Amino acid sequence: MRTRFTLLALALLLGVSACGADPGTAGTSPDDSGAAGDAPSSSASSNTDPSAPEGVWGNPENMREPSLELHEDGRLTGTDGCNRLMGRWVLEDGTVRFQEVAMTMMACPDVDQWLASAASAVLAEDTLLVYDGAGNQIGSLTR
After folding, report:
1. pLDDT, tens digit (0-9, with 9 covering 90-100), for 52-109
2. pLDDT grade, residue 4 (50/70/90)?
3. DSSP for 45-102, written as a single string
4. What confidence tier does 1 reach under pLDDT thresholds 50, 70, 90?
5. What span, in angstroms and rounded, lies between the C-alpha atoms of 122 and 96?
6. Which residues contact 44 (CB under 8 A, 6 or more apart)?
7. Three-state secondary structure call for residue 121
């Protein structure tokens, strides 16, 4: 009888303690600034400084044309008109340098995949002039 009482008390105690845990906050600390599960916001597309490279270049709404987004945190995302690309970028002496760029490798007939060769870029007003590793201009994207 005493064993039954102990097991019942233990089960009740475990059940009550489980009610206090919020699964939506598992793994977060009280110091977290955002709610658990919130995606990081991208303010790169709202950049209003025309001399800053951060922002959207090209038209990402048209997935059949090249576009890039240079995020404020140094990430880059985009498409060459067929394949998705992602990587990092840095600004060195007025030149955007693309680093660690990876792309999907789908076969894309009738798509000029020039953005796959991008190594650097330079801002010219509202245009991003894109260069390959040899320094040849291979294309351009507008804001």
Report:
1. 999 999 999 998 899 999 999 999 999 999 999 999 999 999 999 999 999 999 988 8
2. low
3. GG---TT---EEEE-TT-TTSEEEEE-TTSEEEEEESSSEEEEEEEEETTEEEEEEEE
4. low
5. 6
6. 54, 55, 56, 69, 70, 71, 72
7. strand
Alpha-carbon distance of 117 to 138, in angstroms, equals: 8
Residue 117 CA: distances (Å) to CA of 95, 100, 101, 120:
16, 12, 10, 9
Cα(103)–Cα(66) distance, integer angstroms: 13
Contact 141, 66 (CB under 8 A): yes
DSSP 114: G
pLDDT of residue 23 exceeding 70, the answer is no
- Burial class of residue 58 in the structure, from the number of CB atoms within 10 Å of its CB (0-12 exposed, 13-18 middle, 19+ buried): buried
56-60 contacts at long range (C-beta below 8 A, 24 or more positions apart): 56/143, 57/128, 57/141, 57/142, 57/143, 58/141, 58/142
- Percent of the chain scoring above 90 in pLDDT: 55
